[in-house]
Each structure stands twice: as structure tokens, then as C-alpha cells.
Design goal:
homodimer, 87 residues, mainly alpha, Arc Repressor Mutant, subunit A, two-stranded antiparallel sheet, 3 helices, DNA-binding
DNA sequence: ATTAATTTGTTCGTATGTATC
DNA sequence: TGATACATACGAACAAATTAA
């Protein structure tokens, strides 16, 4: 039995589940940030990188990032990258 | 002779019987879920798919699903699909 | 100074779900 | 029954800015 919640972020996208892929990716990235994969004001992987890593379309990846921005988890610098928000 | 109850769910809709088609479909789907065709939190076939598979109108299919929701067998996620309920 | 590579920004088209009328 | 709306996902193309060679 896993030690995370029923719909918690795993590391794989589930297309047949009730949670949309873009929300799954957002949860995954948020979890990785909390876990400390990237520190505050450090860049998370680029959009093409996330596309490759999770097998999603870029438009979907961008939707995830938009969600994370709205939640104050990350911020985007145009033509530069997406960075972990923080104190 | 079949090994299910007298009016139990078959895999075909009987239009001449006493049970309404939408209740038949609901029973069929419930049986398929019990049988393990789809696990908990997995999507069941889409409405258009069920329309095609069972030769029913979409409104009828939706009525079946509503019944299954009321019975706690499945739950619907708007703009996403219908999923098997489960602990 | 040029060029190429990288990264986000934008738009279009197609497909599939459910929701609604 | 049929049509339309809304949300989502994929794919592709191009623009704009930055950075590195």
C-alpha cells in the first residue's frame, strides 16, 4: 500500500482517472517542489523538458504551469524560464 | 440455462420485457463493475460509446448513469467522464 | 556582429468528454 | 433527436527574447 493519498501525485500520468492530466502534473510538480527537488528561485525544467519527461503536449504542460502560478507555487519569466516561488 | 436471476442483467437490451431499458443498462453496467470490467476510479465507457454498444438513445444512457450515481456505483466528473466508485 | 540554440508566448486545427437546450 | 456549448488534450507552426558560440 502506498503512503500517499488516493489521488495524490505519483510520477506517472493516468489518463483514465477522474483527475485531468494537467492537474496531475501540477500536483506532481508541487510535490517535487515541496520535496525540495528545486529550491526557491531555482528554475524548474523547461516546458519541452516536461513534455518529454511526462509525455504530455506542451499546451497541457503550460496549463499545469498556469495553475501553479495561480497558486503562487511558481512564477514565470518570459524567455527565461519558470522558477520556484519563495520567501 | 443461465446462472443469473430471472430479470438479471444480460448483455442485450430487451424491449419487450417488464424492465425499462434504462434500468436494464444500469443493471448491466453494475454487473460488469462487480465482475471487475473496470476497477475503482477507472472510467467506464463514454456516453456515445454506450449508445453505440447497446443501441440506446443518449438520453437513455444518461438516465442509466444517473441511476448508478444515485446508487453510489459510479460518479461523474463534468467534462471528464464517468468513474467507478470505490473505497 | 552573426549565428544558432533555448525558452516562453501565441494561435490554429482536430478530437473527445460531458452539459445543456 | 439534434445542435450547441464548454473543458480538455494533442499536434503543429511561428514569433519574440535571451543566451552562448
Amino acid at each position: 500500500m502506498a503512503h500517499h493519498s488516493e489521488f495524490g501525485p505519483d510520477d506517472e500520468i493516468d489518463y483514465d482517472g477522474p483527475v485531468t492530466p494537467y492537474r496531475q502534473l501540477a500536483a506532481i510538480l508541487a510535490a517535487r517542489i515541496r520535496r525540495g527537488d528545486w529550491a526557491a528561485h531555482r528554475a524548474i525544467p523547461s516546458e519541452p523538458r516536461l513534455v518529454q519527461e511526462y509525455g504530455l503536449a506542451r499546451s497541457t504542460v503550460r496549463r499545469s504551469i498556469r495553475l501553479l502560478v495561480e497558486d503562487g507555487v511558481v512564477y514565470v519569466v518570459p524567455q527565461r524560464g519558470t522558477f520556484v516561488a519563495g520567501g
